[in-house]
Structures are given as structure tokens and as C-alpha cells.
Amino acid sequence: MKKIGKNSGIVTLIILTLFCVFSFSACTSLKEEEEIEKGEDYELNQDISEWMDEGHKNTTVESSCFVIKSKAKQGTFNFYIKDRDEHLVSVFSTAEEFTGTSFFLQAGKKIYRLSGGSGIISVTRETENGLQIAYVVPKVAEVLVDFKIVSSFDKKDGDMIKMTSVVKNLKSRKENFALKLVMDTSIGEKSRYHFYGSNNEPIENETLYTSSRDNKWFITGNEAASFQILLNGADISVPDFVSVANYETLNTLNWEPAVLSSRTFDTVSSYNNSACCVSWKKEFLEKDEKFSRIMYFAVAAYPESLTSDRFFENYKNPEKPKNQAEVIKADGESTFRSENTPGVKEYVSSDEKYSEDYSIYDILQDYEENSEETDGDQYSVDYIRRLLNRIAELETSGKELNQEELLLLNAEIDEILLHLRENK
After folding, report:
1. How confident is the model at residue 79 (pLDDT cuts 50, 70, 90)?
2. Is the CB of residue 240 less than 8 Å from the CB of residue 254?
3. SS3 annotation, the chain
4. What tens digit of pLDDT does each residue of 112-150 get?
5. What's the gap between Cα 95 and its chain centre?
6. What is the pLDDT of residue 47?
7. First and final CA of the chain: distance in angstroms?
8. Which pLDDT belongs to residue 222?
9. Residue 292 above 50 pLDDT?
10. How far is CA 155 from the centre of its chain?
11. How far apart, in Å, are the Cα atoms of 417 and each of 161, 237, 355, 375, 384?
């Protein structure tokens, strides 16, 4: 009897433990569902609601070089490169309706998976030059992603994709937002090296890049086709960081992945499964305000070569001021903010003279060595340091920011930065 009673106690304990675990999981799931309202109860923005009816259909568009497919229900997409025999070579993993490739949105402290995410509304439609996918996180944000087919030069027919992502704040208050894209690349996984950097060196281990100055693009591919991820040049929004790693490392709600430089593209649960993550800097938005992020992709089928360099050589964009970020106000008017304005740090120009990573901090040391060449106290080292210290003091004080003073200080920094660049 004692033996039976002992076993009965153990069984009871196991049952109670399992009940607690399942109860906790259920409560967590319910909590998440409560935080994101049901799609049918949410009134869509007019811009998106106009194509809501047709937007629930899967969409396919193509050029002579590639095909773009999108899944409306999951809000997913994939690129296919046409090889020399017109067979389609998939760039991203096709498993589970392409959900391995996804956008992630950070709103305040919360992170949302947009492609296939719970409670996320997604629609898609064809456009004149490509297709669009719209995501709605009810009462939080709208994200519109536009894929536009472009050509690297006049005689090339649609060998590049311009991807523009627009985030709109639906909250009733000012909030910070950030966007990132995780791409479950499968095209290069059977090759000896999954990725090559812009220095033409193979990337053998997981790597995190915080600057695109020396890593302007990555290439992945196989014997049939090549796919290029472009991170710097033209009107590209230079990322906050880029990482290449095992897919399991990047497919996480942690905003910055735990990349290990000593680890190859293998984990205990995932072998030879590489991916690329591109994350852009956060932006502080007022209610109904928007910001945009831009990047490009290029493709080529053997024996052709990638020709994206010709696109960037011929690119001209005189409309947007150097080193400023476009912010679209609630009334639709486009304005520009300094890249030094706190929380508004999209970098849009990428020529060598006005490199995104070339800031006042970077040139200060060089300037100290040539300070006698400057004209006036405004450009003295002490004055510059005082400006920088004052900006840092305002940003870290914990008090409500004096936006007017910050704008004045940053305008002063911009003027000094321009002067020093021109006289470097």
C-alpha cells in the first residue's frame, strides 16, 4: 500500500505540474491576443482599406529576370530568379508559406512579427511596377512595403528590386518605432560559402556588422543564379546593423541577435541554415506621422553578371538634402530632420564625401590636428565639444526633452560638419 500511495503522489504531482504549465501557456497566449485586437474589429486606414477586398488574393509579378510572389493571408513574400532555361530559382525558403522571411516591428518596448504574426492584418496587391504588402498592428502601426521592379541600366530589363517600407504611428501619443527584415536565404545553402561580402571575401561564420562603409553589399547564390543584398548607395537607408548567421539565431523577438563569431551556420537543431538580418535605426513619431526605409536587391542568372554598380554610378537624387531623414507628417507634407536629431537618424546619402558613418565624432580627431586652418571660434575643438556635451546632457537627463534647444544645437552641429567636410 505504501508503494502504491507513493506512486499515486508522484502521479498527482506530475499532473498538477502539467496543469500549471498549460495554464500558464494559455494565460500568456490570451494576454497576447488581448493586446492585439481582432482584425475584423479594426477600422483600416483609408489608404489601405481601398484595396482591402482585392488585397486578400495572393499576388505574383515578374520581369524578364525574376518573379516576386506574395501570400496575402500570411503577409509573406519570396523572390525567384529565372535561370538561363527559364526555370525559377528560389531565393528564400519556401517552407510554411515563406514565413521564414519576415519583417519585425518594434513599437516602444514591444516587438511584433509582421509576417504570419498573431493578430496582424495583412493584404497585398499588384502595382504598375511591382507589388505591395500592407501590415496593420491594430492601434499601434501600419507598415506598407512596396516592391518596385527597376533596371540597373537602360538595356537591362528589370534585374533589380527597390524595396520601400513606410511605417505609420497609429498610437494616440508619440512613440519610437524600428523596423528590421529577417531573410531566410536558401539559394546559397548548398554552395561552399553561403555569403560573400563586398570585399569579395567569403563569410564563413556568423557575423554582426554595425557599419556598411566597408560592407556595402552581400551576395549569395549557386551555380544557376546570384542574389545581391545592397546596403549602401543611392537613396538606400543605411542600416543600424546587419547580421548573417544561422536562421535560428536571427529568428527571435530579441531585437539584436546573439551572434557568435566563432559559430558557423549550424546549430544543434538547424544544420547549414543561413539567413541575413537587416535592421534600421529607430524613429520617434508623433500620432499619424510616418517614416520610410529603402533598400535594393539585384539578381543575375549564370552566365550573366550582377550589374547593380551601373545603377549606382548613374543614380542622381538632387531633391533630398544631404544627411537628412524624410519624415512624413500627418497631413502628408514631407519634411526633413537633421540626422543628429535624437531618435531621427535615418541616413539617406551614401557617396564618399557624405558618408553616412562620417560624423562629427569621426572627424574631430583629424580636425584637432589641423585646427589652425579653421576660421573662427565656432570651429574650435572646445566649442564643438561643448555642443556635443550639451546634446548628450539633454538626451540623458531623464527629464522632458527641450526639443527647440535640441534642434538649434543640432543645426549648429550640421553647419560645422558641413564646413569641416568641405575643408577636409
Report:
1. very high
2. no
3. CHHHHHHHHHHHHHHHHHHHHHHHHHHHHHHHHHHCCCHHHCCCCHHHHCCCCHHHCCEEEECCCEEEEEECCCCEEEEEEECCCCCEEECECCHHHHCCCEEEEEECCEEEECCCCCCCEEEEEEECCEEEEEEEECCCEEEEEEEEEECCCCCCCCCEEEEEEEEEECCCCCEEEEEEEEECECCCCCCCCCEEECCCCEECCCEEECCCCCCCEEEEECCCEEEEEECCCCCCCCCCEEEEEEHHHHCCCCCCCCCCCCCCCCCCCCCCCEEEEEECCCEEECCCCEEEEEEEEEEEECCCCCCHHHHHHHCCCCCCCCCEEEEECCCCCEEEEECCCCCECCCCCCCCCCCCCCCHHHHHHHHHHCHHHCCCHHHCHHHHHHHHHHHHHHHHCCCCCCHHHHHHHHHHHHHHHHHHHHCC
4. 999 877 789 899 999 999 999 999 999 999 999 999 999
5. 22
6. 59
7. 91
8. 93
9. yes
10. 30
11. 33, 20, 12, 14, 10
Backbone angles phi, psi at 331, to 5 degrees: -85, 5
Contact 285, 291 (CB under 8 A): yes
Across the chain, mean pLDDT equals 75
Helix axes 403-422, 381-396, angle to 10 degrees: 150
Closest CA to 264 of 193, 344, 320: 193
Q: Is the pTM of this model over 0.85?
A: no
CA distances from 419 to 251, 363, 375 (A): 43, 11, 10
Euclidean distance between CA atoms 100 and 93, whole angstroms = 7
pLDDT at residue 33 greater than cutoff 60: no
> Is 211 in contact with 357 (CB distance < 8 Å)?
yes
